[in-house]
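dumping this here before i forget
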Amino acid sequence: MHYGTAEQIRQQRQTTLDAAHAAHPDRFNRRPHAPKLPDQAWINQPAQQQQTVSV
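structure:
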């Protein structure tokens, strides 16, 4: 994702899944799909900070 290749890799995975399905359709209940790309990806997600309101 850091190099902007995530969509290209996802497409390659889908091509591989399509080829596997075409070669062995009896192994699948339905056509497989590559996972969708996440909106955000974290190694160490920052802790959620709660906002306090003073009155």
